[in-house]
Write a structure and sequence with these properties.
Largest sheet: 2 strands, antiparallel
CATH class: Mainly Alpha
Number of strands: 2
Shape: globular
CATH topology: ABC transporter involved in vitamin B12 uptake, BtuC
Radius of gyration: 21 Å
Number of helices: 13
Order of helices and strands: HHHHHHEEHHHHHHH
Number of domains: 1
Strand content: under 5%
Distance between the termini: 13 Å
Length: about 325
């Protein structure tokens, strides 16, 4: 039920919005949905790893925001040059931002595995810390300057797909942004690691039965700590690309991404109790989320009602998740 329900929901939503709006079921809009999901998809990959171990990370959006601001902050500093007098400012900014994401992930992992703080509380604290970093660096201002590689990957076009001719008789193309390529790379890599490596099997073991995993010789703390670091790094990459995608770096810019990323993972069918689900489920959840958000825009529904509908969909997914777990235990 956990796996079938999201697929049925996705099909039903596509059919409904296709009849409700004549502009929804088009190739151009399909790629537009995928483009809108790309940043959320990168965050959702890391969050999938965390939830598969029966943990949670509430800091993903705040970390994305903090790292996006961090890369912009270092970009506007004086140029750094090497011996050959070649500007290295952009690369240094990216490296420092990634190191900041790694540090946040390591602190979170240490708090959970070494000190023993529950992931819910630890990541809630890290959310506040990351928000504090954002406020301290940006100080209420807006940054528009980023390294060239971040600008390219965040807002650049990788290639264009020809779709015929437009009304004026000129060739029409659909641009495929680099954010889509990066998101697909993260999804594919995440799936391969989970399904075809020993590390991926350990993640499922820890989430499915932590005590049994310990008796089998699995270093449970190391696995849990590593997925928290992976999640922070995914959020960091999403944050860097996101500021270029949005065109600016500012405080509270990624606030909605926490609910979106959790909804994508849970709506797709990954169990909150761990050990069930994966990247394939997350992809379905992302598509459900994207179709809902895009479809509601096409039928011009009240923006406040849109937020309510998204919450109801998440609630329905949680109910299915709980009942599927009960059926599994009773069976």
């Amino acid at each position: 039920m956990r796996n079938i329900a999201p697929v049925i929901t996705l099909i039903a939503l596509v059919i409904f919005f296709s009849f409700a709006s004549s502009t929804f079921f088009t190739l151009d809009n399909a790629f537009n949905i995928i483009r809108q999901l790309s940043i959320t998809g990168i965050i959702a990959v890391g969050l999938t790893y965390v939830i598969l171990t029966a943990e949670i990370d509430l800091s993903v959006a705040a970390v994305a925001n903090a790292i996006g601001i961090t890369v912009a902050y270092f970009t506007i500093q004086p140029d750094y040059v090497n011996i050959a007098n070649v500007p290295m400012q952009g690369w240094i900014a990216v490296i420092l931002a990634l190191l900041a994401a790694l540090a946040i992930g390591l602190v979170t992992a240490g708090g959970i595995t070494i000190i023993g703080i529950p992931s819910f509380i630890m990541t809630l604290a890290m959310m506040q810390i990351a928000n504090g970093m954002s406020a301290l660096l940006v100080r209420g201002q807006i940054a528009y300057s980023y390294p060239e590689i971040v600008t390219t990957l965040g807002s650049g076009t990788a290639f264009r797909i020809p779709i015929g001719v437009d009304a004026a008789g000129k060739a029409a193309f659909i641009p495929i942004g680099w954010t889509i390529i990066v998101c697909l790379a993260f999804l594919v890599a995440g799936h391969i690691v989970l399904k075809y490596t020993r590390y991926g099997r350990y993640i499922y073991m820890v989430g499915g039965n932590r005590e049994a995993a310990e008796y089998s010789g699995v270093n449970v703390k190391l696995i849990i700590g590593s997925v928290m670091v992976i999640c922070a790094m995914c959020s960091g990459v999403a944050g860097m690309l996101g500021v270029a995608y949005f065109g600016s770096a500012q405080q509270n810019q990624f606030d909605t991404f926490l609910l979106d990323a959790i909804a994508a993972v849970v709506v797709g069918g990954t169990s909150l109790f761990g050990g069930r689900g994966g990247i394939g489920n997350t992809i379905i959840g992302l598509l459900v989320l994207g179709v809902v958000n895009n479809g509601l825009d096409h039928i011009q529904i009240d923006s406040f009602l849109k937020i309510l509908i998204r919450g109801l969909i998440l609630l329905a997914a949680l109910i299915i998740n709980i009942y599927a777990q009960k059926l599994r235990e009773s069976g």
